[in-house]
Design a protein that fits this description.
The protein is an alpha/beta fold. The protein has 9 helices and 10 strands. Strands 6-7-8-3-9-10 form a 6-stranded mixed β-sheet, with helices on both faces. The chain has a 4-stranded antiparallel β-sheet with strand order 2-1-4-5. It is globular. The C terminus is likely disordered. Bound molecules: adenosine-5'-triphosphate (ATP) and magnesium ion. Magnesium ion binds next to helix 2.
Length: 281
């Protein structure tokens, strides 16, 4: 167990995933998307989930978001309240920005705020302006979505997700489709926002260096069945730069572990892919 995980045993976690499995059934076939997942995420912690395609990362995010239900016996809670469906306390950001093209930038951010019945309309407008400023888009408030670049659209999506002040932010390969330069800018902005707004973030990515750049902890998943196989504490100072050589040692360690786990099935047998690789290397 990692140092951070041990510490988490002694504090009340923000998000608790307890013994969660998820099996998808269609006809006679069954997919064990997740098997016995146990995870605690502390308040204000930034946790990244990495692993090969099909290891259940998005499935776990969907379960935490309340968009799907775990198999019997598993349980997910936020602030000790069991997740039974979607809620304002958890906001999901997908790879595709999913903005409404018929609304302008400002109204897209305002949309999430309609879920806050305790705010007056002028208060909502203030909050929307604040978050557009935070992501550097206040000048584009009245623009249409189709007038924005991909990176700007992701910024609008980030502002829209943050504006209702969710306690937990769930991000699924949010920056995957962006060019490297825009991504780098957003890493900086996201770290800044995370520190200022004290969010708890669960962040899915294929990019191990990205995970090391952003995460306090990186959780490694393996497929068939989807499960947690290892976790890594990232104790580098912030704000982190993706190009900082200090990230390399952590990223190499995680990449090596990923390759190792890929070569082993749960019963310890070496997979055919890895046998072949050994022959060719
Ligand atoms: N609605 C569904 N119905 C049936 N099978 C599903 C469904 N959703 C996911 N799966 C299966 O569950 C497994 C885990 O899928 P999931 O999308 O969570 O993986 P992932 O780790 O997010 O992969 P990727 O990195 O490619 O996004 C896969 O084998 C997938 O085919
Ligand atoms: Mg996925």
């Amino acid at each position: 167990m990692s140092k951070v995980s041990e510490e988490l045993q002694n504090v009340t976690a923000k998000l608790v995933v307890r013994d969660v499995s998820k099996t998808f059934r269609s006809g006679k076939s069954e997919v064990a998307a997740l098997r016995n997942i146990n995870l605690k995420v502390n308040e204000g912690e930034f946790v990244c989930l990495v692993g090969p395609s099909g290891c259940g990362k998005s499935t776990l995010l969907n379960l935490v978001a309340g968009l799907d239900k775990p198999d019997d016996g598993g349980c997910i809670s936020v602030d000790d309240v069991v997740v039974t469906g979607p809620g304002r306390d958890r906001m999901v950001m997908f790879q595709e920005h999913a903005l409404f093209p018929w609304l302008n930038v400002f109204d897209n951010v305002m949309f999430g705020l309609r879920l806050k019945p305790n705010l007056t309309e002028p208060e909502r407008r203030e909050v929307a302006k604040f978050y557009l400023h935070l992501v550097g888009l206040e000048k584009f408030a009245q623009n249409s979505i189709h007038e924005l670049s991909g990176g700007m659209r992701q910024r609008v999506a980030l502002a829209r997700s943050l504006a209702p002040n969710p306690r937990v932010l769930l991000m699924d390969e949010t920056f995957g489709a962006l060019d490297a330069l825009t991504r780098e800018q957003l890493y900086g902005e996201l770290q800044d926002i995370w520190e200022k707004r004290k969010k708890t973030i669960l962040f899915v990515t294929h990019n191990i260096r990205e995970a090391v750049c952003l995460g306090d902890r990186v959780i490694l998943f393996s497929p068939h069945p989807g499960r947690i196989v290892q976790e890594f504490d990232i104790d580098l100072p912030r704000a982190r730069d993706i190009n900082d050589p200090a990230l390399t040692a952590h990223a190499s360690e995680i990449t090596a572990a990923l390759k190792n786990h890929l070569c082993e099935s749960p019963d310890g047998a070496v997979s055919a892919v890895c046998k072949n690789r050994e022959v060719h290397e």
